[in-house]
Every structure is written in C-alpha cells, then in structure tokens.
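Subject: for your reference before the review

Hello V.,

The reviewers asked for a structural picture of the protein, and I figured it would be easier to keep everything in one thread rather than splitting it across files. Below is the amino acid sequence we used in the manuscript, unchanged from the supplementary table.
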Amino acid sequence: MSRRQPVAVLLCSVAAALAAPWAQAQGGTSYKWVDDKGVVHYGDRVPPEAAKRERAVLNDQGVVVRRLDAEKTPEELAAEQRSLAEAARIRERDDFLRATYSSVRDIELLRDQRLDQLREQRVSTETYVATLGQRLAELQARAQTFKPYNTAQGARRMPDGLAEDLVRTVNEINRQRRLLDDRTASEAAMRSQFQSDIDRYRQLRASN
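And here is what came back from the structure prediction:
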C-alpha cells in the first residue's frame, strides 16, 4: 500500500493542475467559451463580445454544470417568435377540433352545409350576371341607332342617359364577375380547410 500512495498523490496533483484554469479560489463558478478564432477561454467573467456566443458554466471541479445559449440575432428572435406563434395556433386549432366535433361525419356535415350556402350564392350571382348581360344587349341594340355607331346621315347623337346606362351596366357586370371569381376561390379554400381539419382530427383521434 505504501508504494501506491505516492502515485495517488501524484494523480491528485495532476487533476488539480488540469482544473486550475477554471477553478476559483473559494469554489466559485467559472465559464468556458470559444472565441471567433476557435480559441478556448476560461474565466470568472465573460467579456461582452463572448456573451454573443454559446458558453458553459463550470463548477470548482471544472465540470460543465450548465450551458448558456448564444445571444440570438434579431432575425433569429423573429423566427423563434413566429415558430412559437405557429405552435400556439396549432394547439388552439387542435383544442377547437376536439371540443367541437365528436366524429369525422360531424365535420363533413358542416362542410357540406357551408358549401351549399356558397353554391347558392354563386348561382344567384350567375343569374344576376345573365340578367345584366341581357340588359346590356338591349342597350347596345338601342345604341346602334345613334352616332357614332349609326353612320347614316342625319343620325342623332346618343342620349346621355343611354350612354350612362351602358357604362353602369358594363361596370356592374365586371364587378359581379369579380365577385364570382372570389366566391369560386372561397369555395376551393373552404374545401381545402375542411379536408385539413378532417385529416388533423383523424390524427388526433388516432393518438388518443
């Protein structure tokens, strides 16, 4: 045993020497970080420029007890906020699906009801556009008897009222056609959203 004791003492001395760069006199906390050139540093305080990098907290034995993340850039912080907001939105949607529906059939019934309402609105708009088209054809037929469409000598100038009716009718037809496009897009978006809800609801049910 007496021969092994010096070896033990030597090992303890080596361990103490290795721990020296980061150990504090009163057992305090120290830090380890790597600079821009890849050089490892130890110290009881982290310089401001190193605070932007990842660093480790060491105990008085030189053991890493905690890691501090690098300071995030504004872009990274913004991305993190977007990620958190998206996760919150998904949780809120999941809670809504669980609380609102008892089966996939419930979602399908609501989907069909909403789509029927959109189809009725679209059919009504299409009927109105057809009526406007007939009205425009009648106005255009009347306009043919006046200048500038009628080039016969003695043809009268188009009445202001007729010209105004033509402009109003054309504008209304264009407006209603844009409305039809919007409703068609809304119908497609609604189908997609309900299908997404159905797929997600199935996943939630399967995970329970």
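For the response letter, the relevant points are probably these. The longest strand covers residues 30-34. The radius of gyration is 39 Å.

Happy to draft the paragraph if you're swamped.

O.
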